[in-house]
Amino acid sequence: MLDQYTGVGVFLAVGALFVAVTLLAGKLLRPHNPYPEKLATYECGEIPVGEGQIKFHIRYYIFSLIFVVFDVETVFLYPWAVVFEEMGLFGFVVMMLFIGTLVEGLVYAWKKGALRWV
Amino acid sequence: MEMVLLLLLKSIVWIVVLLSIFAFLMLFERKFLGYFQLRLGPNRTGPWGLLQPVADAVKIIIKEDIIPREADRITYKLAPIASLFVALAAFASIPVGPPIELFGRTIELSIVNPNAGVLLLFATTSLGVYGITLGGWASQSKYSLLGALRSTAQMISYELSLGLSIIGVLILAGSLNLYDIVQAQERVWFVLLNPVGFLIFFISMFAETNRVPFDLPEAETELVSGYSTEYSGMRFGMFMIAEYINMITMSALAALLYLGGWNGPSFLPGIVWFALKVTLFIFIFIWVRATMPRLRYDRLMSFGWKVMLPVALANLVITAAAVSLF
Amino acid sequence: MTVTDWVFLAIALVTLFSAYRVVTTHKIMHAALWLGLTFVGVAGIFLLLGADFLAAAQVLVYVGAITTIIIFGIMLSSVEDLRGESFDNVWKRLSSRLTSSRRGIWPLLAAVGLAAAMVIVVSRGQWPASPHAPALDTPRLLGEALFTRFVIPFEAASIVLLVALIGAIALALKEERTE
Predict the structure, then answer these.
(1) C contacts of B119 (beta carbons < 8 Å)
(2) What CATH code is carried by the domain that includes residue A46?
(3) Could you tell me the CA-to-CA distances from B58 to B54, B62, B235, C44 in Å, in that order?
(4) For position C136, what pLDDT does the model report?
(5) ipTM
(6) Residues 45 to 74 of A: which have CB under 8 A from any C CB?
(7) Quick count: other Cβ atoms within 10 Å of Cβ B111?
(8) Which domain holds residue B51?
(9) Confidence of residue B196 (pLDDT cuts 50, 70, 90)
């Protein structure tokens, strides 16, 4: 099992080498000439107004909450798909109950307006 | 020990090939966008612009590395590296051809071949949001943060339909292993058996890679450059490499899961068929970019949750029902 | 020490260090990132034990979704709440922590007691290794177990998820309305 994944380690190590080499090459080759105007944040040529933080809307948070629930459902669906042939009708009914419960949740979220973006 | 050497060799070949494909992909995108728009793309640097990638690479490396004053330095430096690493790691489990016989031993044409290959692939692509979120937040600029948040929300919404759309394929193939899935398509490709799933996967592919028509988070007219506004030089280059490698990974996944991978008439070797199919999808990516307008963000999100997700669920229910009846 | 032992040591050290940094770093966004790294470390340990499906599920759900929620939650809070107090001198920081009862001496004693209890349990317990080699076809085995022996917990899990979804939406929409 372990030798399966050493491949990823080696691959990432080679990738890291590439990244390090190019960053190093850049560091040696590029100019370094910072001055305040250059280091200021970009706001289409104007002096930036206000802080760097925006008013964070809660709908981002709501969407990520709903995403977690459906992500867990997706994780349950994968082993079901693999053993679907053997499980026959029973497996089908069991999973339909599962999906049905979560579709109820989606409909609730829809009706409550949690899926509205504006 | 020799296994480690083989892995090392494979890794070097893979990375060199990936980066060359990336370099020429940037060129082809600009050339084909040009042709679609009735103009020539880059054609000054070398014949047909073929040396343009070299020029781009040199430019990116020697550009000054400007780190904004208010930026969170550690996260700022970490974000593009994370993006690139995740993109590379996702490509590690993709097989590009059937196992080949060389010097008396069978070599699999992928870096790893895990049993839960498809799930591992989705796990690594779901990590792709972090490079973007952290890059946008670390820049401490309003444009970057807005672009990053929108991109993250978009990617997680369409990740669901992406993951659910392939369950139809998994039911038909009966395994999470990419080699098994390709083998199950020897007689008929899954695009014919599961066309709705393919359509959902195809649309979600564009949303996951932040490409047109889902590229509002990085549209120049909207948010300057979204999460990569404050990035320059090689750090920006790494974001771009990550984006294009994601594109290549998604195309490869589409070819493997729906278009039969390396199956094809035997007058061409499997690798060539696979390469042709991946090239087809990459061309479609570029074609769609030249052709379609971008979706407004609220329509994008409501499409993802109110249309794609229910259709993906319905597709998997119907596929399951159909399989159990026949 | 075999290669597996070395790899386990490396992953365990990364996980422990990240967990330590979660509680000791001053910037809360960094704490969220260290938490993400801790989750990745745990996934690595699952991989070492041969549970590749579980490792992928861990990365997909914990790192992919839950850390995103945490990061969004952090961004939701206002800027002033984000920086903790910081003392320049380590000793001043330590002494102020120890003298304050809420943040110092009682949590420290509780943590030490818990650590001692865990060490005693782990060293006294019997940990027989399973006679079987780790399974190779984990998704199939997981699926078979999930739909034969564990069907009822599986359906109960769907109810729990539904309740979590409804609760989260109710709470979050209440927040939205008060904005």
Answers:
(1) 53, 56-57, 60, 139
(2) 1.20.58.1610
(3) 6, 6, 14, 38
(4) 73
(5) 0.87
(6) 51, 53, 56, 58-62, 64-69, 71-74
(7) 26
(8) 1-62
(9) very high
